[in-house]
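Recall the central idea of this unit: under ordinary conditions, the amino acid sequence of a chain determines the structure it adopts. In this exercise we apply that idea directly, starting from the sequence alone.
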Amino acid sequence: MKKTALIFVLVGLLSACTKNLTKLNVDPKNPLTVPSYTLFTNAERVMSTEIITPNINDNTFRLIEQQWTETQYLNETQYDIQDRKIPDNIYSIFFSGALNNFELAKKTMLTDVTDAPTRANETAITDLCEVYSFYYLVTTFGNIPYTEAFQPSNPFPKFDDAATIYQDLLKRIDTDIAALNEANGTFGTGVDQIYAGDPNQWIKFANTLKIKLGMTVSTSTSLQAIGQTAVEAAAKASIFASNADNALQTYYSSPPSTNPTWVELIQSGRHDYVATDFFMKLLGSQNTATPVDPRTPYYFAENASGVYLGAPVATVVVAANYSLPSGPLYTTGSIGTMTNPDYPGDILDYSELQFNLAEAAARGYSVGGTAATFFKNAVDASIQFWTGSTTGAAAYDVLPAGNSAAQLLAIAQQEYISLYNRGWDAWTLTRKFGYPAFTPPPSAYSLFPVRFTYPVIEQNTNPINYKAAAAAIGGDAVTTKLVFFK
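Accordingly, the structure predicted from this sequence is:
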């Protein structure tokens, strides 16, 4: 009897162990499934951070646009995008870090967001973030994977035509606007780090983004008319009305969710970026302790001698002799905030919208106002955003009288200045307007890059589709003009 009882006990123990064996295959720190809201929050942060960061490995547009220059290692200022595989990094961050997670979030919402109206709002907001992300990819590379992207069964996606992608992005914006409804539920507190899920704010964002897309192609032979139609329709709808509507990514005072500029300059201890003499002269503040443009002390700090001074582009210099990017934690005496850890990330704003409308009016688009009025609104909004008031704006916010060419030049100059800390968008402005006409950096690796070459990983792993895409756009070179700008 004792032996029989022992056998039953052992069998019971073995049975219990067998039932729990499968749990050993589950890593509690790396779950196989996650809620849709966590996917969205992470993707939104990755998207915003990629636009804002000055990380030398994936966002060197402040250097390309000669807002900043390097003081010691000059490769990126000299247009070297290959040494650090910058195209590969951009591709990976957007496709894998942002877009793939937005896609997964939308799919997961089908099961974990049971209220259909709430799901409609959340899906539309997520899709708008996808549109925003695709905009930067397609205007940087040209033809890219689109209709066949995010298909695990197809590791070798074709590259879609850039102009076709652009037109589909406009359609998606309209669909998302139609789906958004303030009366319905939305993301919970803390999930959406830009607008807290507010459908009305996302509608304003969508129409403002639509105008941005429309004005990107204002000089394109084949897409200008499509862009004009989009701009004129969106201008009559709900758009940003002031800086209060700006799309600002929330960052916090302690890691890991801190302002990427603080991460790259303060936390890492970098002191090898300074203002260029070109940009400082444009501000009118070169070699003086009394800045002319009121944004100067918010953009840069005084140098060791107490004046604002920019360095020659792509030249080895002593950083302390020149003006560093501004921020009270970065340089003694600076009054700016852009290098604070909790400084918000600006990904789309009222000033940019008003510059776009000023350009549209100057080109004869029907947008409900004059170029002069929109221009004043734009300059005033930029100065207020940076300084907290419009003091000093009157010296810059009057659009010169004359023909449209003179007005467009003035718009381009002030928009370029306002896009400080938005180097990627400044690059798009330069490719569209041909302004500024930069003096090439010494020992440049190429002519001014008007696109980025395709990632090496695409060339190696997807060679057939890569070659077809390169041929379709006119060659995989940094000098190949994309359809948006020709």
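The mean pLDDT is 92.
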